[in-house]
């Protein structure tokens, strides 16, 4: 029926990366909790983690837009 394998591969990649980011976040939360890190340190760590994920997501969105418009 014309299944597009590239679509499935791309979808699996993004889902896998989302799961990876989730597990990284859970590991960081565990380390912060066991290390009894003060509130300022916890907030700083989560801000850095969030901006890293947001940058990665923004890169993917920009890349998708460029590719669909034929620029890439």
SSE inventory with pairings:
Elements: H1 5-34, H2 39-68
Helix pairs in contact: 1-2
Keywords: Membrane, Transmembrane, Transmembrane helix
Protein name: DUF2788 domain-containing protein
Organism: Alkalimonas cellulosilytica
Task: Supply the key terms.
single chain, 72 residues, mainly alpha, 0% strand
Structural class: mainly alpha
The assembly state of the depicted protein chains is: single chain
Helix content: over 70%
Average pLDDT score: 87
Number of helices: 2
Could you tell me the strand content as a percent range?
Answer: under 5%
Shape: elongated
Quick one: how many beta strands? 0
Note the main sheet.
Answer: none
Taking the alpha carbons of the first and last residues, their distance comes to 28 Å
Q: What is the gyration radius calculated from CA atoms?
A: 17 Å
Order of helices and strands: HH
Which spans of ≥5 residues are poorly predicted at pLDDT below 50?
none
Keywords: Membrane, Transmembrane, Transmembrane helix
Transmembrane segments: 12-32, 44-66
Pfam families: DUF2788
Protein name: DUF2788 domain-containing protein
């Amino acid at each position: 029926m014309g299944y597009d394998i590239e679509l499935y591969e791309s979808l699996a990649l993004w889902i896998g990366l989302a799961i990876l980011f989730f597990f990284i976040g859970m590991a960081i939360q565990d380390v912060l909790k066991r290390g009894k890190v003060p509130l300022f340190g916890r907030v700083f760590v989560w801000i850095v983690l969030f901006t890293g994920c947001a940058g990665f997501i923004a890169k993917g969105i920009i890349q998708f837009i460029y590719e669909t418009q034929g620029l890439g």
